[in-house]
Amino acid sequence: MKQLILSLLVCVLCLPALAQHPDSLYKAYLNTLKLEDELDRDSMALQAYAVYAQRQVNRRDAGAAAILDSLRQMAEASRWPKAQGVYFYTLARHTELKGNMQQALQRYQQAIDSLRLAGPPYGPLSTALVGKGFVLVNTGLYEQGFALLKEAWHYARQSGHLKNMWLSLNFFGDYYYYSAFGQQQFDSALYYYRKTDSLVQAHGMWGFFKSDTYLGLANVYRRLGKQQEAARYWQLALEEAQQHGNHDVVYALYVDKAEVLEENQQYQQALELKLQAYQHVQAAGWIEFIARADRHLYETYKALGDYQNALKYYEQYTAAQDSMKKNEALASYAALEAQYENEQKEKEIERLRNKNLRQVLTGIALLLILLVTFVSWHIWDLRKRNRELKQKNREILLAQLRGQNLERKRMATELHDNLNTKIAAIRWQLEALSPAVSDKARQILAKTLELVNDVYGDVRLISHNLMPEKVEALGLISALQNLLNQLKQNNNVKFELVVNTPPDFDFGSLTYPLYNIIFEMINNILKHARAQHGWISISTQGDKILLTVSDDGVGFDVGQMTNGYGIRNITSRLENIQGKWNINSAPGEGTQFYIEIPKID
C-alpha cells in the first residue's frame, strides 16, 4: 500500500469511558452537581460533561453541536485554562470528523496552547498533541506530525495516560513500517509494535487497542518473511476486531494484505479483499477512510484495465479530498508557522531591548550581593569573636572554679587536720583539770568545755561545707540522696530528689558549687518554710543544667523579699558560675526556685 492507513488511530482519541453508554455518562455528570463543595462540584461537573461530550462527538450524535455549545459555556464560565483546552480539543475532534482539516488544525492548536498554560497533570495535553499530530500526518506533513507524537509520548508517560502511550508507540511502529513515510525499517517497526503489545498485555487493553496491535505485528512479520507468525497475528486481529465491531481495523487488515498481493501482481485477489474492506469502511462512516478506500479501488481497477470503475472511484476520491479541505489545512499550517516565526522574532527584538536593562540590573544585583556578602562576613566575624570571648570567659570561670575547689580543699584540710586537732587537744587538757579544781572553778570549766565543743563542731561543719567528703567520694547525686535520707530521719520535712540526666553525665567543676547551692536552699526550707515536703529536681537541656527546688511551706510575697543571708549566699554562688534564677512564691502557696546554669566542662 503506497499510502498510510493511519486515520484509524484517531478514532480512539476520545475513548474515555468508551464502554459506557452515553446515558450513564450523562448520569455521572448529574451526580457531580450534587456535591456540596462548590469548587469540587464545578470542576468535576465540567470534566464529567467533557467526557460525555467527547463520547457523543465520537458517535457522531445529531445533538453533538448543542452539547458542544453547553461545554463551551461551562468552560468560559470557569475561566480555567484546562477547561478551555478540553473544550477546544473536543471541538477540534468534532470538526475533524466532519472532514474540515483546516479548522481542526486551528482548534487543536488552541487546545494545546490552553493546556500548556494550565500545567500538570499533562494527560489532556498529550491527547491534544496526538490529535494535532495525526491531522498533520493525514495532510502529508509527516515529520511535523512525528515530532508532535514524540512530545505526546513524553507527556503521556509522565501522566500515566495509557491510551496516548499506546497511540504514540503504535504510530512509531507505523512510521517505520508504511512506505508513505519513506522509512520501511522493519526491525524498528517490530520493536515498537512489540512495546505496544507489552503495554496491551500488561494493562489488559482490549478491542481496538488489541486488534490494531495484532494488525501491526501481522504486517511486519509478513515483511520479515515470517509467514506463520504473520498469519497467526492476522487471524487474532480479525477475530478481536470482529468481536468488538472495529470496522476500521478489519478494513486495514484486508487492505494491507491486498497491498502484498498487488506487489506480486495478483490484482484480482487484491480487488476481492479491497471490496470486502470497502464494506467495513462504509460501516465505519468516516470520510477520511472512505476517501482512502476509493483511492485504493481506483488504483486496483486501473491496474486491471477496468477504466470505467477506476474513473468512478477516482471521482469519489477527489470529491472527498476537496470536502476535507486538506490544501486549506496545509495553507493554514503554513500560516501558523509563519505567525510563530514572527512571534519569535518579536520576542528576540524584545530580548535585545531588555539586554541593557538586564545588564544594569545584573550590575546592581552584583553590588547587592557584594554588600550582603560583606555584611554577612562582618556578622559572622562578630559572632566568631563573641564565641571566642564566651569560650575564654568559660575557660576563666572553669579555672576559677578549679582554683576555688583546690583552695576549699586546702582550707578544709587545714581546719580539719590542724585547727580541729588543736581544739581537741585543748578540750582534753581542760577535761583533765576538772578533778583538781574547786567546785566553783569546775562550773566555769564546764561552761568553757561547752564553748570549746561548740567551736569544735563549728569548725568541723565549716570544714565539711568547704569540701564535703561524701561529694568527693560518692558524686553529686549520691551525696544529695545520702543527705536527704539523713534529713528524713532527723526532721519533719520529707524531701524527694528527682534526677533526669544521662546515666554518664558528669557535672565536672560544677559539682561542689551545685551541692553548696542546694544545701543552702535546703537550709532555708528547714529554717523558714515550715513545710512538710520539699522537692529537688535536676535535669539537663542541651548545654544547660536545670535545677528546681520547691516546697509546700508558708511561702512569702516575692515583691517584699529581703536580701537575707541565705538569699545573698545563693545569689553570690550563682553569679560565680554564671547561673540565672527565678523565684515563684506567694503567702500560703509554697515556694519554687528555678535555676539555670551553663555547663562549662
What does it look like?
The chain is of the alpha+beta class and 601 residues long. Among the domains are: 159 residues, Alpha Horseshoe (Serine Threonine Protein Phosphatase 5, Tetratricopeptide repeat); 103 residues; 125 residues, 2-Layer Sandwich (Heat Shock Protein 90). 74% of the residues lie in helices and 6% in strands. Strands 1-2-3-5-4 form a 5-stranded mixed β-sheet, with helices on one face. Helix 20 links the parallel strand 1 and strand 2. Helix 2 runs antiparallel to helix 3 and helix 12 runs antiparallel to helix 13.
Please outline the helices and strands.
Blueprint: H1 22-32, H2 38-58, H3 64-78, H4 81-97, H5 101-118, H6 123-138, H7 142-159, H8 162-177, H9 186-203, H10 208-223, H11 227-243, H12 247-263, H13 267-284, H14 287-304, H15 307-324, H16 326-433, H17 439-466, H18 469-474, H19 476-490, E1 494-500, H20 511-529, E2 533-541, E3 544-551, H21 565-576, E4 580-585, E5 591-598
Parallel strand pairs: 1-2
Antiparallel strand pairs: 2-3, 3-5, 4-5
In total, the number of strands is 5
What CATH first level of one domain would be assigned? Answer: Mainly Alpha
Global mean pLDDT: 80
Sheet/helix structural class: alpha+beta
Major sheet summary line: 5 strands, mixed
CATH topology of one domain: Serine Threonine Protein Phosphatase 5, Tetratricopeptide repeat
Query: Can you write the helix and strand succession as a string?
Result: HHHHHHHHHHHHHHHHHHHEHEEHEE
Shape label: rod-shaped
Strand content: 5-15%
Spans of at least 5 consecutive residues whose pLDDT stays below 50 are 1-22, 32-41
Bin the helical content.
over 70%
Distance between the termini: 90 Å
